Amino acid sequence: MGAFPKTLMEFEERFGTEQACRDYVFRLRWPAGFRCPRCGHDKTYPTGRLQIECRGCAYQVSIIAGTIFQGSRSPLRLWFRAMWLVASQKTGASALNLQRVLGLGGYQTAWTWLHKLRRAMVRPGRDRLDGRVEVDETFWGSPDEAAHGRRAGKKALIAIAAEEDGEGIGRIRMRRIPNASAQSLERFVRESIEAGSVVHTDGWEGYGACLEKDYHHEVTILKGKPPEAASELLPRVHRVASLLKRWLMGTHQGAISHEHLDYYLDEFTFRFNRRSSKSRGLLFFRLLEQAVAVQPTSYRAMVKGARGKKAGIPRVAPS
């Protein structure tokens, strides 16, 4: 797809028109060239802003159907700017920030766009972690007297897996889990870590049953040790947990409902795993590449089942 823009000026020069954005989406969707799904013909002509028609059988196709842009009346140029803003800032953007910078009509629009983009940050069929991997859990939420030990109470419980890369951290995976039972932990481990890997955990009994078969389980007993010992004996996951909470509080002011937390975890993972990338333009391309590959999600589907009359969307906090 050519060199990636490195600066805002380069981005504007390359994607400064609606036609340029439209052509780019077209090439991403059909890199080997378009072929009509009905007759197989490879010649088309435009019939509308985002519509093309097969010259062979007159079958019409929308170039944004089946992408996160489906159903949007906003120009692709504005969507591209939103993705550049999200990808070019290391800490990302809040909905309030996106609304102000792009001049979007309302907070709900900005919130919806960001959640559509977060759904594009997880690549279908992505590789699982391997090698030596630390696994632990952390809590997210306001103080809850009912929560103690590994019981979450009203807090959210987040499972974290972090590859060991020498003294540093490799790739990570994160997910909100309902509890710290063996069943919940096994599902997270199996979907996140390649079989045969070394999995390093504390002595929590929930890990024993799920790791004894397909993994090499390394256990560090923390019982009886001071609280700070956990961050020394499982340093990578604790570092990741600390950075996650700092990001949630800094960029999003902590105003995140449990129902939508998984998508913020996806964004953090996307950013963390690409933290060493020298090109923000490459991150923009990866985000755009996945945006045309994931299935569209409507605002109504996003907020279905969320708590409260306003579907869990904060009215004032920039999340």
List its salient traits.
15% strand; Nucleotidyltransferase, domain 5; 319 residues; three-stranded antiparallel sheet; disordered C terminus; alpha/beta; 2 domains; elongated
Report on this model:
With about 325 residues, this protein is an alpha/beta fold. The chain has 2 domains: about 1-30 and about 65-120 and about 255-319, no CATH class; about 135-250, Nucleotidyltransferase, domain 5. The chain has helices spanning about 10-15, 20-30, 75-90, 95-100, 105-120, 180-190, 205-210, 230-235, 235-250, 260-270, 280-290, 300-305; strands spanning about 45, 50-55, 60, 130-140, 155-165, 170-175, 200, 215-220. The strands form 2 sheets. A 5-stranded mixed beta sheet has the order 6-5-4-7-8, with helices on both faces. Helix 3 packs across helix 11, helix 4 (about 95-100) packs across helix 5 and helix 6 packs across helix 7 (about 205-210). The chain starts with 7 loop residues before the first helix and ends in a 16-residue tail after the last helix. Residues about 310 and about 315-319 have low confidence and may be disordered.
The biggest sheet, with number of strands, parallel, antiparallel or mixed sense and barrel status, is: 5 strands, mixed
Average the pLDDT over all residues and give the rounded result: 86
Kindly state the percentage of residues in helix: 25-40%
Number of helices: 12
* DSSP strand content: 15-25%
